[in-house]
Amino acid sequence: MLTRLAPMLATENIPATIKFYVEVLGFECQSQMPEAGWASVRRENVSIMFSLPNKHTPFTTPLLTGSLYITTDEVDVIWEQVKGRAEVCYPIDNFYYGMREFAIYDNNHYLLQFGQAIGSNTQE
Q1: Cβ 101 vs Cβ 73: under 8 Å
Q2: Are 110 and 68 in contact (CB under 8 A)?
Q3: Which residue ranges form the domains of the chain, and what is each CATH number?
Q4: Are 11 and 51 in contact (CB under 8 A)?
Protein backbone atom coordinates (compact mmCIF):
# COMPACT_ATOMS: atom_id res chain seq x y z
CA MET A 1 0.00 0.00 0.00
CA LEU A 2 1.33 3.44 -0.94
CA THR A 3 0.65 5.97 1.79
CA ARG A 4 2.41 9.20 0.84
CA LEU A 5 4.41 11.03 -1.79
CA ALA A 6 6.88 13.67 -0.65
CA PRO A 7 9.16 14.90 -3.45
CA MET A 8 12.78 15.63 -2.60
CA LEU A 9 14.14 18.69 -4.39
CA ALA A 10 17.76 19.78 -4.44
CA THR A 11 18.69 23.31 -3.46
CA GLU A 12 21.91 25.07 -2.59
CA ASN A 13 20.16 27.30 -0.05
CA ILE A 14 17.86 25.48 2.34
CA PRO A 15 17.19 28.49 4.64
CA ALA A 16 16.07 30.67 1.70
CA THR A 17 13.91 27.84 0.40
CA ILE A 18 12.24 27.33 3.77
CA LYS A 19 11.65 31.09 3.98
CA PHE A 20 9.98 31.15 0.53
CA TYR A 21 7.68 28.23 1.27
CA VAL A 22 6.73 29.56 4.71
CA GLU A 23 6.37 33.27 3.94
CA VAL A 24 5.03 33.14 0.38
CA LEU A 25 3.11 29.87 0.25
CA GLY A 26 1.99 29.44 3.85
CA PHE A 27 3.78 26.15 4.51
CA GLU A 28 5.23 25.26 7.91
CA CYS A 29 8.75 23.98 8.38
CA GLN A 30 8.01 20.49 9.59
CA SER A 31 11.57 19.39 10.24
CA GLN A 32 15.12 20.35 9.42
CA MET A 33 18.57 18.91 9.94
CA PRO A 34 21.14 21.54 8.98
CA GLU A 35 24.02 19.14 9.65
CA ALA A 36 22.55 16.71 7.11
CA GLY A 37 21.57 19.40 4.62
CA TRP A 38 17.88 18.50 4.70
CA ALA A 39 14.51 20.04 5.53
CA SER A 40 10.83 19.32 5.10
CA VAL A 41 7.88 21.70 4.73
CA ARG A 42 4.18 20.93 4.91
CA ARG A 43 0.87 22.61 4.26
CA GLU A 44 -2.19 20.50 4.96
CA ASN A 45 -1.70 17.28 2.94
CA VAL A 46 1.25 18.50 0.87
CA SER A 47 4.82 17.78 1.99
CA ILE A 48 8.00 18.69 0.13
CA MET A 49 11.52 17.82 1.21
CA PHE A 50 14.67 19.74 0.28
CA SER A 51 18.26 18.66 0.40
CA LEU A 52 21.64 20.04 -0.48
CA PRO A 53 22.97 18.60 -3.74
CA ASN A 54 24.35 15.10 -3.45
CA LYS A 55 28.14 15.33 -3.68
CA HIS A 56 28.17 12.17 -5.83
CA THR A 57 25.87 13.63 -8.49
CA PRO A 58 26.72 16.53 -10.82
CA PHE A 59 24.74 19.63 -9.86
CA THR A 60 24.87 22.98 -11.58
CA THR A 61 21.33 24.26 -11.10
CA PRO A 62 18.04 22.98 -9.68
CA LEU A 63 16.40 20.84 -12.33
CA LEU A 64 12.99 19.26 -12.61
CA THR A 65 11.79 18.45 -16.10
CA GLY A 66 8.15 18.68 -15.02
CA SER A 67 6.29 20.49 -12.29
CA LEU A 68 4.71 19.90 -8.93
CA TYR A 69 0.93 20.06 -9.43
CA ILE A 70 -0.90 20.86 -6.22
CA THR A 71 -4.68 20.49 -6.15
CA THR A 72 -6.67 22.75 -3.90
CA ASP A 73 -10.23 23.78 -3.16
CA GLU A 74 -9.24 27.44 -2.88
CA VAL A 75 -7.20 28.24 -6.00
CA ASP A 76 -8.46 31.85 -6.22
CA VAL A 77 -7.53 32.56 -2.59
CA ILE A 78 -4.03 31.14 -3.06
CA TRP A 79 -3.60 33.10 -6.31
CA GLU A 80 -4.43 36.35 -4.51
CA GLN A 81 -1.90 35.51 -1.79
CA VAL A 82 1.03 34.72 -4.09
CA LYS A 83 0.57 36.61 -7.37
CA GLY A 84 2.71 39.59 -6.38
CA ARG A 85 5.17 37.62 -4.28
CA ALA A 86 6.48 34.99 -6.70
CA GLU A 87 7.55 34.82 -10.32
CA VAL A 88 4.47 33.89 -12.34
CA CYS A 89 4.76 31.32 -15.13
CA TYR A 90 1.11 31.82 -16.14
CA PRO A 91 -1.72 33.64 -14.34
CA ILE A 92 -4.93 32.09 -13.10
CA ASP A 93 -7.22 30.94 -15.87
CA ASN A 94 -9.82 28.32 -16.76
CA PHE A 95 -8.58 25.53 -19.02
CA TYR A 96 -10.47 23.33 -21.47
CA TYR A 97 -9.65 20.21 -19.46
CA GLY A 98 -11.82 21.41 -16.57
CA MET A 99 -9.28 23.01 -14.27
CA ARG A 100 -8.83 26.55 -13.02
CA GLU A 101 -5.15 26.96 -12.31
CA PHE A 102 -2.01 29.08 -12.25
CA ALA A 103 1.70 28.39 -12.08
CA ILE A 104 4.58 30.10 -10.29
CA TYR A 105 8.28 29.46 -9.83
CA ASP A 106 9.71 28.98 -6.36
CA ASN A 107 12.96 30.64 -5.28
CA ASN A 108 14.96 27.80 -6.90
CA HIS A 109 12.98 28.08 -10.14
CA TYR A 110 11.01 24.86 -9.64
CA LEU A 111 7.61 25.12 -11.32
CA LEU A 112 4.62 24.87 -8.98
CA GLN A 113 1.12 24.61 -10.42
CA PHE A 114 -2.02 25.08 -8.33
CA GLY A 115 -5.30 23.81 -9.70
CA GLN A 116 -8.95 23.32 -8.81
CA ALA A 117 -11.68 21.56 -10.75
CA ILE A 118 -13.96 24.13 -12.39
CA GLY A 119 -17.30 24.21 -10.65
CA SER A 120 -15.97 23.30 -7.21
CA ASN A 121 -16.35 26.79 -5.72
CA THR A 122 -14.09 28.48 -8.29
CA GLN A 123 -14.64 31.97 -9.65
CA GLU A 124 -15.45 30.80 -13.15
Answers
A1: no
A2: yes
A3: 1-53 (3.10.180.10), 63-124 (3.10.180.10)
A4: yes
Which strand ranges, in their side-by-side order, compose the sheet holding 46-51?
A: 8-10, 46-51, 38-43, 28-33
Q: For the chain, give the longest Cα–Cα distance.
A: 48
Asked if 20 and 117 touch (Cβ cutoff 8 Å), the reply is: no
- Greater confidence (1 vs 115) lies with 115
Residues in Cβ contact with 77 at an 8 Å cutoff, skipping those fewer than 6 apart? none
Q: What is the pTM of this model?
A: 0.90
pLDDT in tens, 44-80: 999 999 999 888 877 777 778 899 999 999 999 999 9
pLDDT per position as a tens digit, 9-46: 999 999 999 999 999 999 999 999 999 999 999 999 99
